[in-house]
Amino acid sequence: TGDSRSAPKKQRKVMTLQEKVELLDMYRRLRSAAAVARHFEINESGVRTIEKKEKEVREAVAAATPAGVRTLPYLEDSFLSCIENVAFMWVQDCYKKGISIDSNMIREKAKSLYDNLQQKEGEGSKAGEFSASKGWFDNFRKRFGLKTVKIAGQAASVDQEAGDEFPPQVPRV
Protein backbone atom coordinates (compact mmCIF):
# COMPACT_ATOMS: atom_id res chain seq x y z
CA THR A 1 0.00 0.00 0.00
CA GLY A 2 1.30 3.41 -0.97
CA ASP A 3 1.11 6.53 1.15
CA SER A 4 -1.26 8.95 -0.57
CA ARG A 5 0.14 11.86 1.41
CA SER A 6 3.56 11.64 -0.24
CA ALA A 7 2.49 12.82 -3.71
CA PRO A 8 0.92 16.28 -3.98
CA LYS A 9 -2.27 16.53 -6.01
CA LYS A 10 -1.62 17.77 -9.54
CA GLN A 11 -3.09 21.23 -10.14
CA ARG A 12 -5.54 21.55 -13.03
CA LYS A 13 -4.02 23.70 -15.74
CA VAL A 14 -6.37 26.23 -17.32
CA MET A 15 -5.02 27.41 -20.64
CA THR A 16 -5.68 30.80 -22.17
CA LEU A 17 -7.31 31.00 -25.58
CA GLN A 18 -3.97 32.09 -27.03
CA GLU A 19 -2.25 29.01 -25.59
CA LYS A 20 -4.99 26.78 -27.01
CA VAL A 21 -4.51 28.30 -30.47
CA GLU A 22 -0.74 27.76 -30.20
CA LEU A 23 -1.41 24.16 -29.12
CA LEU A 24 -3.73 23.62 -32.10
CA ASP A 25 -1.20 25.10 -34.52
CA MET A 26 1.57 22.89 -33.11
CA TYR A 27 -0.69 19.83 -33.30
CA ARG A 28 -1.41 20.60 -36.98
CA ARG A 29 2.34 20.73 -37.68
CA LEU A 30 3.49 17.74 -35.61
CA ARG A 31 0.39 15.52 -35.65
CA SER A 32 1.61 14.01 -32.36
CA ALA A 33 -0.55 14.48 -29.28
CA ALA A 34 2.28 13.12 -27.11
CA ALA A 35 4.84 15.68 -28.33
CA VAL A 36 2.39 18.57 -27.97
CA ALA A 37 1.36 17.35 -24.50
CA ARG A 38 5.00 17.26 -23.36
CA HIS A 39 5.59 20.77 -24.69
CA PHE A 40 2.55 22.25 -22.91
CA GLU A 41 2.96 20.00 -19.83
CA ILE A 42 -0.55 18.57 -20.03
CA ASN A 43 -1.97 15.08 -20.60
CA GLU A 44 -2.40 13.72 -24.11
CA SER A 45 -6.14 13.48 -23.51
CA GLY A 46 -6.16 17.24 -22.87
CA VAL A 47 -4.56 17.84 -26.27
CA ARG A 48 -7.14 15.61 -27.96
CA THR A 49 -10.00 17.33 -26.11
CA ILE A 50 -8.81 20.76 -27.24
CA GLU A 51 -8.34 19.39 -30.77
CA LYS A 52 -11.95 18.14 -30.78
CA LYS A 53 -13.11 21.63 -29.76
CA GLU A 54 -10.88 23.40 -32.30
CA LYS A 55 -13.82 25.03 -34.06
CA GLU A 56 -15.19 26.52 -30.82
CA VAL A 57 -11.75 27.74 -29.72
CA ARG A 58 -11.03 29.45 -33.02
CA GLU A 59 -14.54 30.97 -33.12
CA ALA A 60 -14.06 32.38 -29.62
CA VAL A 61 -10.79 33.99 -30.69
CA ALA A 62 -12.31 35.28 -33.94
CA ALA A 63 -15.28 36.75 -32.07
CA ALA A 64 -12.87 39.44 -30.86
CA THR A 65 -13.24 38.69 -27.19
CA PRO A 66 -12.01 41.61 -25.08
CA ALA A 67 -8.25 41.88 -24.76
CA GLY A 68 -8.44 41.48 -20.99
CA VAL A 69 -9.92 37.99 -21.17
CA ARG A 70 -7.58 35.49 -19.56
CA THR A 71 -9.44 32.22 -20.07
CA LEU A 72 -12.62 30.75 -21.39
CA PRO A 73 -12.28 27.16 -20.15
CA TYR A 74 -15.87 26.23 -20.97
CA LEU A 75 -17.19 27.43 -24.30
CA GLU A 76 -20.61 25.76 -24.17
CA ASP A 77 -22.67 28.69 -22.92
CA SER A 78 -22.35 31.52 -25.43
CA PHE A 79 -25.40 33.22 -23.88
CA LEU A 80 -23.55 33.67 -20.60
CA SER A 81 -20.27 34.62 -22.28
CA CYS A 82 -22.13 37.36 -24.18
CA ILE A 83 -23.39 38.76 -20.88
CA GLU A 84 -19.92 38.55 -19.33
CA ASN A 85 -18.25 40.27 -22.30
CA VAL A 86 -20.70 43.18 -22.16
CA ALA A 87 -20.37 43.40 -18.37
CA PHE A 88 -16.59 43.50 -18.77
CA MET A 89 -16.86 46.31 -21.34
CA TRP A 90 -19.10 48.20 -18.90
CA VAL A 91 -16.54 47.75 -16.09
CA GLN A 92 -13.76 49.02 -18.36
CA ASP A 93 -15.88 52.00 -19.39
CA CYS A 94 -16.57 52.85 -15.74
CA TYR A 95 -12.84 52.64 -14.93
CA LYS A 96 -11.97 54.90 -17.88
CA LYS A 97 -14.51 57.47 -16.73
CA GLY A 98 -13.22 57.30 -13.15
CA ILE A 99 -16.51 55.92 -11.85
CA SER A 100 -16.18 53.95 -8.64
CA ILE A 101 -17.94 50.61 -8.75
CA ASP A 102 -18.12 47.66 -6.39
CA SER A 103 -18.86 43.98 -6.75
CA ASN A 104 -22.57 44.41 -6.01
CA MET A 105 -22.92 46.95 -8.82
CA ILE A 106 -21.19 44.62 -11.28
CA ARG A 107 -23.42 41.74 -10.18
CA GLU A 108 -26.54 43.92 -10.56
CA LYS A 109 -25.40 45.02 -14.02
CA ALA A 110 -24.79 41.43 -15.11
CA LYS A 111 -28.22 40.40 -13.81
CA SER A 112 -29.90 43.29 -15.66
CA LEU A 113 -28.03 42.35 -18.86
CA TYR A 114 -29.20 38.76 -18.42
CA ASP A 115 -32.81 39.86 -17.89
CA ASN A 116 -32.63 42.18 -20.91
CA LEU A 117 -31.18 39.51 -23.19
CA GLN A 118 -33.62 36.91 -21.83
CA GLN A 119 -36.53 39.17 -22.82
CA LYS A 120 -35.12 39.66 -26.32
CA GLU A 121 -34.53 35.94 -26.80
CA GLY A 122 -38.06 35.13 -25.62
CA GLU A 123 -39.28 31.90 -24.11
CA GLY A 124 -37.34 29.83 -26.62
CA SER A 125 -34.07 30.90 -25.05
CA LYS A 126 -31.62 28.12 -24.17
CA ALA A 127 -30.28 30.02 -21.17
CA GLY A 128 -30.75 28.59 -17.71
CA GLU A 129 -31.09 30.48 -14.48
CA PHE A 130 -28.52 33.15 -13.72
CA SER A 131 -28.27 34.77 -10.31
CA ALA A 132 -24.99 36.74 -10.53
CA SER A 133 -23.92 35.19 -7.23
CA LYS A 134 -20.77 36.01 -5.32
CA GLY A 135 -19.23 32.81 -6.67
CA TRP A 136 -20.05 33.88 -10.23
CA PHE A 137 -18.46 37.27 -9.54
CA ASP A 138 -15.27 35.70 -8.14
CA ASN A 139 -14.95 33.54 -11.26
CA PHE A 140 -15.79 36.53 -13.50
CA ARG A 141 -12.95 38.48 -11.87
CA LYS A 142 -10.52 35.62 -12.49
CA ARG A 143 -11.61 35.09 -16.10
CA PHE A 144 -11.23 38.76 -17.00
CA GLY A 145 -8.15 39.41 -14.87
CA LEU A 146 -9.77 42.06 -12.67
CA LYS A 147 -7.34 42.48 -9.79
CA THR A 148 -9.35 44.86 -7.67
CA VAL A 149 -12.79 46.33 -7.76
CA LYS A 150 -12.96 49.90 -6.53
CA ILE A 151 -15.12 50.02 -3.45
CA ALA A 152 -14.75 53.72 -2.81
CA GLY A 153 -17.76 55.87 -3.51
CA GLN A 154 -21.50 55.40 -3.38
CA ALA A 155 -23.76 53.60 -5.80
CA ALA A 156 -25.32 56.97 -6.51
CA SER A 157 -22.04 58.20 -8.02
CA VAL A 158 -22.40 55.85 -11.00
CA ASP A 159 -23.08 57.53 -14.29
CA GLN A 160 -26.54 56.17 -15.10
CA GLU A 161 -26.22 57.32 -18.70
CA ALA A 162 -23.10 55.19 -19.18
CA GLY A 163 -24.88 52.17 -17.75
CA ASP A 164 -27.97 52.64 -19.88
CA GLU A 165 -26.05 52.76 -23.18
CA PHE A 166 -24.82 49.16 -22.81
CA PRO A 167 -28.06 47.08 -22.97
CA PRO A 168 -28.66 47.99 -26.64
CA GLN A 169 -25.19 46.64 -27.43
CA VAL A 170 -25.98 43.16 -26.08
CA PRO A 171 -27.44 41.75 -29.33
CA ARG A 172 -24.41 42.97 -31.30
CA VAL A 173 -21.92 41.06 -29.15
UniProtKB/TrEMBL annotation:
<dbReference type="InterPro" id="IPR009057">
    <property type="entry name" value="Homeodomain-like_sf"/>
</dbReference>
<dbReference type="Pfam" id="PF03221">
    <property type="entry name" value="HTH_Tnp_Tc5"/>
</dbReference>
<dbReference type="InterPro" id="IPR050863">
    <property type="entry name" value="CenT-Element_Derived"/>
</dbReference>
<feature type="domain" description="HTH CENPB-type">
    <location>
        <begin position="71"/>
        <end position="150"/>
    </location>
</feature>
<dbReference type="GO" id="GO:0003677">
    <property type="term" value="F:DNA binding"/>
</dbReference>
<protein>
    <submittedName>
        <fullName>CENP1 protein</fullName>
    </submittedName>
</protein>
<keyword id="KW-0539">Nucleus</keyword>
<dbReference type="Pfam" id="PF04218">
    <property type="entry name" value="CENP-B_N"/>
</dbReference>
<dbReference type="InterPro" id="IPR007889">
    <property type="entry name" value="HTH_Psq"/>
</dbReference>
<dbReference type="GO" id="GO:0005634">
    <property type="term" value="C:nucleus"/>
</dbReference>
<keyword id="KW-0238">DNA-binding</keyword>
<dbReference type="InterPro" id="IPR006600">
    <property type="entry name" value="HTH_CenpB_DNA-bd_dom"/>
</dbReference>
